[in-house]
Every structure is written in structure tokens, then in C-alpha cells.
Amino acid sequence: MFKLPDLPYDAAALEPHMSAATLNTHHGKHHAAYIKNMNAALAERSDPPDTVEGVVQLAVRENNKKLFNNAAQSWNHGFFWESLTPTPQGDPQGDLKLALEKAFGSIADFREQFKTQGAGHFASGWVWLVSDKSGVVKLVDLHDADTPIVEIGTTPLLVCDVWEHAYYIDYKNERPRFLAAFIEQLANWRFAEAQYDAARKGEGGWKFPT
Asked: Per 3-state DSSP, what percentage of the chain is helix, strand, and coil (rounded to 5)?
């Protein structure tokens, strides 16, 4: 059975941009519930996969929406915690910086498109920065539990959760302010850069802890 991974930082470490109350609720209740529900569904099987990535792929093959929702949300949240950092990192660096400038014109333009795309996403979902094997980056916003790890040749680099439970305690209905805080203060560019290197090497990048 899978366990809820610990946060990579203290629950209060992201304040004032994301409160301990938000993290304790989001991680300790929402993420924990997805893990619990996924484990309950897998307990009925004689040969469950031994990775969350494998569970997601199994759910896709079987068109098992309930299993997919809980497994994908378990994975997406694990990746989201890694996409956050308590230490502002300024701009992305190195090859990722060059790729973003090529795709969006400048880092400032990238940030503006990120905020616009996230604010325009209707209802629940995620805003992902992804790369293909050739190093071409793009933004995609996906609904509900959808995740880019089901797309062959696509590697997620960074993600922001735009379900209301991700920001409502701190920002109420002001999603644009939350998106600005994420992309300007909380984004873990060192993690994204490592993911970008993995994408171009065909290594797959971050895996859910087992």
C-alpha cells in the first residue's frame, strides 16, 4: 500500500504566500484522502502495481475512472509539493531559461501567459509546464485529475494546482493573486531544471515515492 509522502518543507515554510493552514488541509486531508481511496481500490486486486505511475497507467488501460482519479490526484499532488519552494529562486536558469525564452519570448512573457492561462481555466484542474524529448516547452491546463504522465514523450517540469482547495483559505476567490504568488515567489525552478534535463535525456524525471 502507498503512503502519503511527507512535505519537502515545514507546513509553515511557504508563508506568507501559502499558509500552514492551507498546507495542513491540502496535504493532510485532500492528498491523504486520494492515497486512502487509491489503496482501498487496489486492495481488491490480487496483483496491484508497485508504483503510483503504474496504477495510473493501469487505470487508463482499464478505463477505470475512479481508480484513475485517485491515483492521478495522488501523483499530481506529490509533484505539486516538489514544485514549491520556501526560498524564492528568481528566474529559471540555463537551458530551461533559453527554452522558455524561445517558446514565450521572455521569462516575463512566460509568467504573464502562465497567469493568464491559469486564471482562464474553468473550474478545477492544473496548469502544467511540460517538455517533449526534443526540449520544446509549453503550458497546458488540464481538468480535474488529468495528468501529463499519460502522454508518451511528455515530461512535466512544474505544476500549479488550481482546484479551489489549493488557494481558497489564503486567497478566497482571487485565483489570479494565487497564481502570481506561485509563479513569482514559490516556483521551484531548480526542480523544474532537473526535470528538463531528464526530459531531454529520456529519463522520465520525478517518481512518486514508494
From this structure: 55, 10, 35
What is the C-alpha separation between 129 and 192, in angstroms, rounded?
A: 9
Residue 191's nearest CA partner among 52, 57, 87 is 87
The torsion angle over the Cα atoms of residues 126, 172, 8 and 153, rounded to 10 degrees, is 10
What are 118-154's pLDDT values in tens digits? Answer: 999 999 999 999 999 999 999 999 999 999 999 999 9
pTM for the structure as a whole: 0.98
Q: Do 147 and 55 touch, CB atoms closer than 8 A?
A: no
Helix (H) or strand (E) holding 195: helix 189-201
Instruction: Tell me how long the chain is.
Output: 210
Query: In angstroms, how far is CA 151 from the centroid of its own chain?
Result: 15
Instruction: Indicate the DSSP class of residue 49.
Output: -
Residues 6+ apart with CB under 8 A from 49: 42, 55, 57, 58
Domains of the chain: 20-82 (1.10.287.990), 94-201 (3.55.40.20)
Using CB atoms within 10 Å of the CB of residue 96, give its burial: 0 to 12 exposed, 13 to 18 middle, 19+ buried. Answer: buried
Grid cell of 16 as nine digits: 506568507
